[in-house]
Amino acid sequence: MTEVAQQAVFWTDDSPVCEPMGHGEDIAAHFHDYGQLRYAASGALVTTTKVGTWVAPANRITWVPPFYVHSSRSYGETDVRVLPVPAALSEELPPEPSVFVASALLREAYLAMSSEHEPAASERGRLLLAVIGAELIRAPQEPLRLPEPSDPRLKAVTDLLHADPAISATLAELGRRTGSSERTLSRLFGSELSMSFHQWRTLLRIQRALLGLSEGTSVTETAMRLGWANPGSFIDAFTELVGQTPGRYRSTAGAAHS
Length: 258
Hints:
By secondary structure, this protein is an alpha+beta fold.
């Protein structure tokens, strides 16, 4: 999902537990006057803004700052838990959307907090929020933000890649399909997204690999589905960007689901 609606809806409230989302279900673009944490207790949640896309399987927690317009899509049967964040904690978190690696303590405190009827009103809720805040501040951030373009010529190309990350077409071939020259598109990738076409497509594929691996897809099948010539090149690219092998990531994501 790459579209963020021009007329975003202002939402004033959220239940800590959302209705379960089916695979491919969308949440339209909206914003809040408070910060929000979003955790997929099962499945995976993709959050998109005008500047980027963030992927959060079940071992990641997404942070959306106040007034930041965002939309979402679920992958797999997704059980989303959302928490409003008090202003004091919001000020200690990043100024743009981010994804944090969820420790076991952070995950359990978050799930316990989301089960509270009025989480901020009880002493237990305040203690759980303090644990969540302390763990978030020390948690490593997921570095895989996929920048999204605003130039319509570049967006026509990235839309094709979002629709089929495994496509093997060169930038010149994609340019012919969308009516732009390779030179223009290459310049736009660098000036607008600060990366090359190859780097952007690799990052897109790695984001999709996170989703597949978190659902239990094998490393080899994930590599083939996403257009890598062989599993070895996928493993190298994944390890360089994520900081661990896809096999290791798959096993830890599976543990988060259990």
